[in-house]
Design brief:
This protein has 560 residues and is of the alpha+beta class. The protein has 24 helices and eleven strands. Strands 1, 2, 3, 4 and 6 form a five-stranded antiparallel beta sheet that branches. The protein has a four-stranded mixed beta sheet with strand order 5-10-9-7, with helices on one face. A hairpin with a 5-residue loop joins strand 9 and strand 10. Keywords: Membrane, Transmembrane, Transmembrane helix.
Length: 560
């Protein structure tokens, strides 16, 4: 049954006729404006909650207008309450499933065009008001003539065009960054960007998403606490996807879950263990597990919805992740560091002592309890040395693994701020240890799990472990005496940045003054050249001031 309603407010990017240059200008202007706002607030020391909320609203409004690429970035940030202020979290959360819908007329036209029949011939009933709308499409509830309750996912118009433009725009920005800023060269941004857009282009192909859903459903066949909707291929195309209707409570809605007597700790464990299975056993995982893509059923089942952004773990990476995971459980610092180096997450250095000390500190202090940032005061000097030498880097193959884990971590912290990742993963380890396991990979995991449990009940004498580790470090030549004043180094770095900023400020002022004088003479052409140099020097000044501000912020954190 169809009922008409008025067209909803449309987004600018859906109907604008962009050129690559116009899109580049829009994205660059947005980036510059936001950075300028933050710098202005910093200079005026206006960092009140009201001001942050104002900036966050402006950010969300402009991300919506910029379109799906930037909405996806905002969605990822909205789960990181430990990284960005609460005001931004609250506003960015609107991007998860509250993106304004497009008009019903467009949705119906898309369905009829793709499926080749009138809507009333396809469905016994079809709800006009969408259940939810997102950056790539919106979902309508319907009923088949067989009586099955379904949801119909309809793609937004113009997605491929805007993706193609953003593909060029972001590529151009990355080339500029890697060419003029040496600090970006080691991160292989080109490969990360290619993988990011490859997933975005896959996400607008609903046939591909449907196949992903079926594969994911097969991987969890027999797991009654994990629900995956069935795909109805007769009513699906590249731009239309019809799925089984599985209602649930949004996974991060703590109040609603508690009102329905749902055990939050169990939901956290279920989410963590399901992702460990995806990563370590299946090698096929949902790379965008934001709260809009997960829900909790009436009986406490975890429901997965969106399968457009699935990713695969290469065999060798999966082997290394298994090694790292169980090395963390056994607090084996050397094995953790060696595998992170092999995976490319840590760059090998002549002196790995600061890195190993930090990893050992993390394993000792945070393996079985929540992270306390204040505890890092004990190793502030090592943190400074580590980030100064920049041993950490992010290879493309790990980008989406870390993104999904940090997003999942953000969801878990929304349910329980005191939760611990490794503690929540214990059921996964125990189940593996008790299972027989078939296949070389599962057998290897089971062997590792049994080793962890065996080590737990047969701990070696602490003094013996310490002496053995000390002996190994002496043999490797890791024990070194270092006499240096880290505080002085940090102060000298700030002084150096301050002097550079002063020089650029003087050059900018001198050239502007020269240009102003030349404007009153016959040498007006030279005045415009001076104005150009003034703009260039002002950019250098801005970069230097931002670097100085960031350095001061890092130093203050280390000194707390």
């Amino acid at each position: 049954m169809l009922t008409k309603r008025g067209s909803s407010k449309s987004l600018r990017w859906q109907h604008s006729r962009y050129s690559a240059l116009g899109r580049q200008w829009e994205v660059s202007l947005f980036t510059f404006q936001f950075l300028l706002f933050l710098l202005w607030d910093k200079l005026l020391k206006n960092n009140s909650s009201k001001q942050r909320q104002k900036r966050a609203r402006w950010l969300v409004k402009n991300l919506l207008q910029l379109g799906p690429t930037f909405i996806k970035i905002g969605q990822s940030l909205s789960t990181r309450a430990d990284l960005i202020p609460l005001e931004y979290i609250q506003e960015l959360s609107q991007l998860q499933d509250n993106v304004p819908p497009f008009s019903t007329e467009e949705a119906i036209a898309m369905i009829e065009r793709e499926l080749g029949q009138p809507v009333y011939d396809l469905f016994d009933s079809f709800e006009i008001e969408p259940l939810a709308s997102a950056s790539l499409g919106q979902v309508h509830r319907a009923k088949l003539y067989s009586g099955k309750e379904v949801v119909v996912k309809v793609q937004r118009p113009g997605l491929e065009k805007i993706f193609n433009l953003d593909f060029e725009v972001v590529h151009r920005l990355i080339r500029i960054l890697t060419r003029f800023f040496n600090s970006f060269k080691k991160y292989n941004l080109e490969a990360i960007y290619e993988e990011f857009f490859e997933l975005l282009f896959q996400e607008v192909d609903y046939i591909h998403e449907g196949k992903n859903a079926e594969r994911f459903r097969d991987n969890f066949r027999g797991y009654s606490q994990i629900k995956v909707p069935k795909i109805y291929w007769k009513y699906s195309t590249k731009k239309i996807l019809t799925l089984e209707y599985l209602p649930g409570i949004k996974v991060d809605d703590r109040a609603a879950l508690e009102a329905n007597n749902v055990n939050l700790d169990r939901i956290i464990q279920l989410g963590i263990c399901s992702y460990l299975k995806q990563l370590l056993i299946d090698g096929f995982f949902q790379s965008d597990p934001h709260p809009g893509n997960m829900a909790v059923g009436q009986r406490g089942e975890l429901i997965f919805y969106d399968f457009g952004t699935m990713a695969e773990v290469k065999t060798f990476a999966k082997d290394q992740m298994i090694e790292v995971f169980f090395a963390v459980l056994k607090k084996d610092t050397d094995k953790v560091v060696n595998n992170l180096v092999y995976m490319g997450l840590i760059e090998p250095l002549n002196d790995m002592t600061p890195v190993k000390r930090i990893v050992a500190f993390l394993l000792e202090n945070f393996r079985d309890k929540p992270v306390d940032v204040r505890a890092f005061e004990q190793i502030s000097d090592e943190v400074y040395l580590m980030f100064k030498s920049q041993p950490f880097r992010l290879p493309p193959q790990m980008t989406f693994i870390l993104k999904s884990l940090t997003t999942l971590d953000g969801i878990a912290r929304a349910l329980d701020p005191q939760y611990n990742l490794l503690a929540a993963s214990q059921p996964f380890v125990k189940n593996l240890a008790l299972s027989g396991g078939r296949g070389s990979l599962v057998t290897a995991i089971v062997k590792q799990a049994k080793g962890v449990i065996k080590d737990t009940f047969s701990q070696t004498n602490t003094s013996e472990i310490f002496l053995r580790g000390l002996e190994e470090r002496i043999d490797r030549g890791e024990l070194q005496f270092r006499i240096r004043s880290l505080e002085s180094e940090r102060s000298l770095k700030r002084i150096n940045l301050g002097i550079k900023s002063l020089i650029y400020a003087c050059l900018t002022g001198f050239v502007l003054l020269s240009a102003s004088i030349l404007m009153t003479t016959i040498y007006i052409k030279f005045a415009f050249i001076c104005f150009g140099f003034a703009g260039l020097f002002s950019l250098f000044l801005f970069k230097s001031l931002v670097s100085l501000m960031l350095q001061e912020k890092v130093d203050r954190l280390l000194e707390k």
